[in-house]
Amino acid sequence: MKILIMSLALLLVSLQGFGQRKSKEDPKDAQINSLTQKLDSVSKELAKYVGVYDTLKKKVIHYNFDPTKTAYLIDSLKMRPMDSTYIKLSTAYADTILVLKKENKTLKAYISTTNSDLEKNKTFMTQEEIDKAKTISSLKQLKEMFDAKIITEAEFIALKKKYLDKL
Question: Number of structural domains, the chain?
Answer without folding.
Answer: 3
